[in-house]
Amino acid sequence: MNVLVVLAHPRSESLSHGLCKQIVKILQPFHTVTIHDLYRDSFDPILKENELLDINYFSDDILPYCHALQAADCLIIIHPNWWGAPPAILKGWIDRVIRLNVGYGFNDNGEGDPVKLLKLRYFFVFNTSNTNTEREMAVFHDPLENIWRHCIANFLGVEHFTRSMFSIVVSSTCTERQAWIDTCCQLVKDRLLIP
Question: How far apart (Å, rounded) are the C-alpha atoms in residues 108 and 32?
Answer without folding.
Answer: 35
